[in-house]
Amino acid sequence: MSFETIDFSVESGIGRLALNRPDSLNAFNVAMHREIRQALDELEGAEGLRVLLLTGRGRGFCAGQDLSDRSVAPGDDVPDLGESLESWYNPLVRRLRALPVPVVCAVNGVAAGAGANIALACDIVLAARSAKFVEVFCNIGLVPDCGGTWHLPRLLGHARATALAMLGDKVTAEQAESWGMIWRAVDDDALESEAESLLTHFAQQPTQGLANIKKALTASWSNSLDEQLDLERDLQRACGRTADYREGVAAFMEKRKPTFTGR
Questions:
Q1: Is CATH 2.40.50 the classification given to domain 207-253?
Q2: What is the mean pLDDT of the chain?
């Protein structure tokens, strides 16, 4: 399948999805939403998927919503922004969070608005040192979406989340790392190699175990301790029945490197 607004491939268990509207800093329009949805459909049906990389082409990761795709002429009906979230953005965030493999995001430039919050919805975020995260919604009278009001307080605490949401200040990659907003800031020319190193690592790891780690950590935000202990019990039981668990134990006992198959 050919795409016009994204680059997408799956090879050797590694999925790669790059936003590819560089002239608009990879801002979202309906066409790009449709193509991302098609790519995720393919991913969910891919045999042996182990990891997904999300990044952007050109000098920015994603500038958020393409406002020209929502321009309102005098006399036109006001667009229903809630419908746009319900139809496109919210399903995208939910699918990234539910994907049963690690999702690595390589932020190669500005990540603004929805672009920032979609990056934060990924499991591990790397950012080039020149990258910046900006919650621009307040500048046009809107509320952070794509899970921004959920992720920011949990990653940064209430005070910083409130200030970023209400002031729209830019956060550098190094600030984001020091605040625990992302995993790591790296030199611009090292971003691709650092991302590829992570992809290679995850493509060789016990995928079902990683998927269950992701599930457990997400559930922990709303679970009581008792509920979380029960979930850990159930997930550990499931992990203990996988071929990768048996291989991991055998490799440990035999003092060799394990060969995980993702099963």
A1: no
A2: 95
